[in-house]
Amino acid sequence: MITTQARGGFEQLFKSAIRANLGAAPEDTFEIEEFSDTKKIKEKEVLILTISTYFFRVIAFFYFSVNDATKDHFARKNRLQEKGLDDGAFYDAFAEFGNICCGQLNRELGHYFPHLGMSTPNVLETECLGYMSSLNGKHVQHFKVVINDSITFYAALCVCNDDTIDFAVRAVEPDTSTGELELF
Amino acid sequence: MFDKRAVAYFYIYLVEVTKMTMSIILLVVGFILGAGGVGIVLFRQKKMLQQVIDSSQSTIDLLSKRATDADVAAIEKKLQGDIRELREQLESQKNALIQEKNASERKIDQAQRESEASIQQLKSENDSIRRAIAEDCSHLGGEIDQLLGLIKTFERWHEEMDDLMKHNRVMHGKNSEFFAIVKNVVILSLNAAIEAARAGEHGRGFAVVADEVHTLAIRSENLSKDYKSNLHKNDLITTTTFQDIQAGGKMIAAAVVALVMLNNKIKSQLTA
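YS: structure for the whole thing
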């Protein structure tokens, strides 16, 4: 069971992590809303990361297509002078975004759950997510992220658990650390 | 001869001085010995002083009644006797108190020696316990270091997972190839059916074969689609399961590292 406030907490922390890490510039505007019509997602691939605790796991999905618009956005985000990235560099940049975004979610959840670990990212075809129900997620949410009213990304959160999850997000000092020590 | 009134005042003065001296001595002794012994002494002294006061009072009464020389002499003698007796009692009690004080000091010395011995013994026991715990900490540190070897296990799982994912991608590729072939077979079977129809009566047998091939190709196509779906499902389950194992491994490794730090902290505190 996941309590209502815990569901709200996951949503708040996930949105906050996206908002903090997906923008290319501080002045970028974000519109993040829950999105239920997943058949409208036309992105070809999805980046997957998992955060695990003893009692549950949170799987984060970031949909993407390798096209000029997204490549330009990540080029701008990475302060590259030349327009666009080659495909390899784009995959690396997108994986790094997923890593940092989930790293923030991991640290925020660490305020409520003492032991957490985070996986490295993997990329799958979007068709794989047609079988998301096989993960037995108890809390699944999709989000549509529109940046500067022009670029659209989709992301999803799936929480799988057996025990009850309950926590209330509280205001904390912004974490200025650069990330956790990777053991792999 | 002294004036009678002067003598009387002198005796009163003596009595008062004696009372004051007694009080001072009692106060001092009372501080030294504490409440128990002093209480008894005070009680006795109070009784004795009361006698002296009563005696003085009777003397004053006599003087005030214009006592004769003989009366004064008798009083003087009596008072001298009282003073002597008081001095003797005072001396005797002083000696008793000194003895009591010496005995108490001896007891205190004894208790102090015993306490010091106990403290020394406790300190020694504490030192051996600290040494034993420090040794246990060292042993625990060694065990934890070995446990950290599980990171190697996670690395091995990581490599195996990568191999598995590569294998899945190969299967995706082969299935795509198989699907393309099946598509061609479907087209080929349709062409064969058309050619069989053109051949008329002679092509009737061939038409049956073409139809059978078409049916098989359609079944193969469906099978390939089903296989593709299963591969996608397999990709998702395998990836998320592996990521859960990987993240869980990091979680355990972090917990073990925290144990190492805690163990080192305890050890340094014990050996400080």
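YS: worth flagging: The two ends of chain B are 86 Å apart (CA to CA).
IM: good catch. Also The first helix of chain B runs from residue 4 to 33.
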